[in-house]
Amino acid sequence: MDATDTGIYAGEVTGLDRVVQIGIASGRVISLSFPEVPDEDASRNHALLDRLRAYFSGEPDEFSDVPVALTVPTDHRAVLDRVGEVPYGKTTDVATLARAVPGLDVDEEGPRIVRAALEENPVPVLIPDHRVRDGPSAAPDDVVRVLRSLESAE
Question: Three-state secondary structure along the chain?
Protein backbone atom coordinates (compact mmCIF):
# COMPACT_ATOMS: atom_id res chain seq x y z
CA MET A 1 0.00 0.00 0.00
CA ASP A 2 1.13 3.52 -0.63
CA ALA A 3 0.09 6.82 0.92
CA THR A 4 -2.48 7.44 -1.82
CA ASP A 5 -4.32 4.18 -1.13
CA THR A 6 -7.69 5.19 0.31
CA GLY A 7 -11.10 3.56 0.20
CA ILE A 8 -13.36 0.77 1.33
CA TYR A 9 -12.73 -2.71 -0.02
CA ALA A 10 -14.79 -5.84 0.54
CA GLY A 11 -14.98 -9.36 -0.72
CA GLU A 12 -16.21 -12.84 0.01
CA VAL A 13 -13.95 -15.19 1.91
CA THR A 14 -14.01 -18.99 1.78
CA GLY A 15 -15.32 -20.53 4.98
CA LEU A 16 -17.31 -17.51 6.14
CA ASP A 17 -20.94 -16.61 5.64
CA ARG A 18 -19.83 -12.99 5.63
CA VAL A 19 -17.57 -10.71 3.71
CA VAL A 20 -14.36 -9.17 4.95
CA GLN A 21 -14.33 -5.40 4.61
CA ILE A 22 -11.35 -3.10 5.09
CA GLY A 23 -11.17 0.66 5.32
CA ILE A 24 -7.93 2.32 4.25
CA ALA A 25 -6.92 5.96 4.64
CA SER A 26 -3.62 7.37 3.39
CA GLY A 27 -2.18 3.89 2.89
CA ARG A 28 -3.04 2.65 6.40
CA VAL A 29 -5.76 0.23 7.43
CA ILE A 30 -8.18 1.95 9.79
CA SER A 31 -10.86 -0.73 10.00
CA LEU A 32 -11.46 -4.40 9.32
CA SER A 33 -14.91 -5.89 9.80
CA PHE A 34 -17.07 -8.83 8.80
CA PRO A 35 -20.48 -7.55 7.67
CA GLU A 36 -23.03 -9.85 6.10
CA VAL A 37 -23.36 -7.38 3.22
CA PRO A 38 -20.55 -5.07 2.06
CA ASP A 39 -20.91 -1.31 1.73
CA GLU A 40 -22.36 -0.58 -1.68
CA ASP A 41 -19.42 1.75 -2.40
CA ALA A 42 -16.83 -0.91 -1.56
CA SER A 43 -14.37 -1.91 -4.26
CA ARG A 44 -13.94 -5.64 -4.75
CA ASN A 45 -10.22 -5.79 -5.52
CA HIS A 46 -7.28 -5.06 -3.28
CA ALA A 47 -4.02 -6.87 -2.55
CA LEU A 48 -4.85 -7.05 1.17
CA LEU A 49 -8.18 -8.70 0.37
CA ASP A 50 -6.25 -11.29 -1.63
CA ARG A 51 -3.97 -11.94 1.35
CA LEU A 52 -6.95 -12.25 3.69
CA ARG A 53 -8.60 -14.73 1.31
CA ALA A 54 -5.39 -16.79 1.27
CA TYR A 55 -5.19 -16.62 5.06
CA PHE A 56 -8.78 -17.83 5.47
CA SER A 57 -7.95 -20.63 3.03
CA GLY A 58 -5.24 -21.83 5.40
CA GLU A 59 -2.12 -19.96 4.29
CA PRO A 60 -0.31 -18.61 7.40
CA ASP A 61 0.25 -14.86 7.45
CA GLU A 62 1.29 -12.57 10.31
CA PHE A 63 0.22 -9.37 8.48
CA SER A 64 3.01 -7.61 10.40
CA ASP A 65 3.97 -5.60 7.32
CA VAL A 66 0.48 -4.13 6.89
CA PRO A 67 0.42 -0.48 8.03
CA VAL A 68 -2.35 0.15 10.55
CA ALA A 69 -3.57 3.48 11.91
CA LEU A 70 -5.10 3.12 15.36
CA THR A 71 -7.27 5.86 16.79
CA VAL A 72 -7.78 4.39 20.24
CA PRO A 73 -6.96 5.52 23.79
CA THR A 74 -3.29 5.22 24.77
CA ASP A 75 -3.85 2.34 27.21
CA HIS A 76 -5.79 0.42 24.54
CA ARG A 77 -2.98 1.04 22.03
CA ALA A 78 -0.47 -0.44 24.49
CA VAL A 79 -2.63 -3.56 24.87
CA LEU A 80 -3.18 -3.93 21.11
CA ASP A 81 0.54 -3.47 20.46
CA ARG A 82 1.22 -6.44 22.78
CA VAL A 83 -1.52 -8.52 21.14
CA GLY A 84 0.17 -7.85 17.80
CA GLU A 85 3.27 -9.60 19.15
CA VAL A 86 1.46 -12.92 19.75
CA PRO A 87 2.72 -15.19 16.95
CA TYR A 88 0.57 -17.15 14.52
CA GLY A 89 -0.60 -20.41 16.14
CA LYS A 90 0.11 -19.22 19.69
CA THR A 91 -2.25 -17.86 22.31
CA THR A 92 -2.16 -15.81 25.47
CA ASP A 93 -4.68 -14.76 28.10
CA VAL A 94 -6.02 -11.54 29.61
CA ALA A 95 -3.96 -11.81 32.82
CA THR A 96 -0.70 -12.31 30.91
CA LEU A 97 -1.47 -9.28 28.74
CA ALA A 98 -2.30 -7.17 31.78
CA ARG A 99 1.10 -8.07 33.28
CA ALA A 100 2.91 -7.39 29.98
CA VAL A 101 1.59 -3.86 29.47
CA PRO A 102 3.57 -1.33 31.51
CA GLY A 103 1.44 0.72 33.89
CA LEU A 104 -1.54 -1.62 34.00
CA ASP A 105 -2.78 -2.86 37.37
CA VAL A 106 -2.83 -6.64 37.17
CA ASP A 107 -5.65 -7.02 39.69
CA GLU A 108 -8.83 -5.25 38.62
CA GLU A 109 -8.25 -2.29 36.32
CA GLY A 110 -5.68 -4.01 34.06
CA PRO A 111 -7.86 -6.95 32.98
CA ARG A 112 -10.81 -4.58 32.43
CA ILE A 113 -8.69 -2.36 30.16
CA VAL A 114 -7.36 -5.40 28.28
CA ARG A 115 -10.90 -6.68 27.66
CA ALA A 116 -12.11 -3.25 26.53
CA ALA A 117 -9.17 -2.88 24.12
CA LEU A 118 -9.82 -6.33 22.62
CA GLU A 119 -13.54 -5.70 22.24
CA GLU A 120 -12.95 -2.35 20.53
CA ASN A 121 -10.05 -3.51 18.32
CA PRO A 122 -10.69 -1.74 14.99
CA VAL A 123 -8.62 -4.24 12.96
CA PRO A 124 -9.17 -7.83 14.13
CA VAL A 125 -6.99 -10.37 12.30
CA LEU A 126 -4.36 -7.68 11.65
CA ILE A 127 -4.17 -7.24 15.41
CA PRO A 128 -5.01 -10.86 16.29
CA ASP A 129 -7.35 -10.53 19.27
CA HIS A 130 -8.58 -14.07 18.51
CA ARG A 131 -5.27 -15.28 20.00
CA VAL A 132 -6.39 -14.18 23.48
CA ARG A 133 -8.08 -17.30 24.81
CA ASP A 134 -10.26 -15.77 27.51
CA GLY A 135 -10.81 -12.33 26.06
CA PRO A 136 -13.46 -10.86 23.81
CA SER A 137 -12.80 -10.20 20.15
CA ALA A 138 -13.96 -7.41 17.91
CA ALA A 139 -14.73 -10.10 15.30
CA PRO A 140 -18.05 -11.99 15.44
CA ASP A 141 -18.00 -15.29 17.35
CA ASP A 142 -18.35 -17.41 14.20
CA VAL A 143 -15.33 -15.66 12.67
CA VAL A 144 -13.29 -16.14 15.86
CA ARG A 145 -14.03 -19.88 15.76
CA VAL A 146 -12.78 -20.04 12.18
CA LEU A 147 -9.67 -18.02 13.00
CA ARG A 148 -8.79 -20.22 15.98
CA SER A 149 -9.41 -23.34 13.97
CA LEU A 150 -7.17 -22.08 11.15
CA GLU A 151 -4.37 -21.41 13.61
CA SER A 152 -5.12 -24.49 15.71
CA ALA A 153 -5.39 -22.15 18.68
CA GLU A 154 -8.62 -23.38 20.25
Answer: CCCCCCEEEEEECCCCCCEEEEEEECCEEEEEECCCCCCCCCECCCHHHHHHHHHHCCCCCCCCCCCECCCCCHHHHHHHHHHCCCCCCCCECHHHHHHHCCCCCCCCHHHHHHHHHHHCCCCECCECHHHECCCCCCCCHHHHHHHHHHCCCC
